[in-house]
Write a structure and sequence with these properties.
Radius of gyration: 21 Å
Strand order of the largest sheet: 2-1-3-4-5-11-10
Largest sheet: 7 strands, mixed
Distance between the termini: 26 Å
Oligomer: single chain
Structural class: alpha/beta
Order of helices and strands: HHHEHEHEHEEHEHEHEHHEHEEEHHH
Shape: globular
Number of helices: 15
Helix content: 40-55%
Length: 370
């Protein structure tokens, strides 16, 4: 783990501890049953970690090293983490689960490419006595635990920010909604939260579910929306994440829009933060990954050792196949020009030097980011 990642992990440790303490009052109600299959003795456990893709910067840069470090800390360095990335292919991920079962991991942490398609593999793991923790996305099947953010709240935060940016001109034109992939259950929750805030307050001219979250697909969709609606009619864009926001903003620039209409985002990717500094993107949603990763690691280690994870549980969540899944939900932050220093910089996610490269130096100085 590099220096920055260590800083990020340390900076949010207090937040993760606060989540744990807050959870204690609801632990008994939340459940957290012991797995029925064989468990590892002591700290020498084998943890399978399956992440969904590498298009979004967060998974390889934040989630993987944070989970690995926390598992190491919890097991005195004796645990083995077996890692695989599905690169946005659900079939590949199902094969990866099979491999993990063959390798006799003691527990699985799965961030599903396709929440529905993974259900059969989750059941295979459970039948083999391997408990499963759903990470970031609520996988279907008999999962034992789940950690993520309040994803409906994410959409609400994005919607509120867009309304704030539009002000009293919210109905002077039309907005475009660029939602995430239909295979990601989080995308549906983001969309639901955003609609709960935006419906009736703006005119939604076009709305898309963007295949595989890909920026190039968002770019194509945005170009189509501008052509259909007329570029002068588009006053704002709801984008479910930063990667798509980049593709959207490229389409807006190509159409000659100036100034650019407000565009939302999510994940606080470096490129997204820099676009916010430059005034090209209005906001992002900053999700502190360390407490999410910490919760997943704590659940996984406890389950692998045949223990309960009650002491960190702060919620119950229902999936289409499993009711009352013991869960940890982490709060999110609306990231704008005004709080970059007090969020991603303060938490050690990025340094000012990383954000304020030569291209963005003047814009950083203008907002006091130095």
């Amino acid at each position: 783990m590099n220096t920055r990642m260590r800083r990020a992990a340390v900076a949010v440790a207090a937040g993760a501890m606060a989540v744990s303490l807050a959870a204690c009052g609801s632990a008994k109600e939340a459940g957290g049953e012991k797995p029925s299959g064989p468990v590892a003795a002591g700290d020498a456990i084998k943890v399978g970690l399956l992440l969904p893709e590498n298009q979004t910067a967060r998974y390889e840069k934040f989630d993987k090293p944070l989970i690995e470090k926390k598992i190491s800390d919890l097991t005195n360095g004796k645990a083995q983490v077996v890692y695989a990335n599905a690169k946005q292919d659900a079939t590949t991920q199902n094969s990866q689960v099979d491999t993990m079962i063959t390798n006799k991991v003691n527990v699985l942490i799965i961030d599903a490419v396709d929440a529905k398609a993974i259900a059969g593999s989750v059941k295979k793991a459970k039948d083999a006595g391997i408990p499963v923790v759903a990470y970031d996305r609520l996988a279907e099947g008999p999962i034992d635990g789940y950690t993520s953010f309040d994803n409906e709240e994410v959409g609400k935060v994005q919607g509120k920010a867009l309304l704030e940016a539009l002000g009293d001109k919210a109905k002077d034109g039309q907005i475009v909604m660029m939602n995430g992939s239909v295979t990601d259950p989080n995308a549906a929750l983001f969309k639901k939260g955003a609609h709960s805030v935006l419906d009736g307050k703006v005119n939604i001219g076009k709305e898309y579910d963007t295949k595989e979250w890909k920026p190039e697909n968002a770019n194509t969709n945005m170009a189509g929306a501008l052509s259909a609606l007329g570029k002068d009619k588009v006053i704002g864009v709801y984008s479910a994440n930063d990667g798509m926001a980049g593709g959207i903003i490229t389409a807006l620039k190509a159409a000659g829009l100036s100034p650019l209409p407000p565009v939302t985002g999510q994940d606080a990717e470096l490129a997204g933060v820099q676009r916010i500094v430059a005034g090209e993107q209005f906001m992002s949603v900053y999700k502190p990954y360390a407490p999410e990763a910490s919760a997943a690691a704590e659940m996984a280690v406890a389950l692998a050792q045949g223990k309960k994870a009650d002491d960190i549980i702060n919620n119950k969540v229902d999936s289409p196949t499993t009711k009352g899944v013991p869960s940890v939900l982490i709060p999110v932050v609306s990231l704008t020009k005004s709080n970059i220093k007090d969020s991603v910089v303060k938490d050690g996610v990025y340094t000012v030097d990383e954000i304020c490269t030569d291209k963005y130096a003047a814009a950083c100085a203008a907002i006091g980011l130095k």
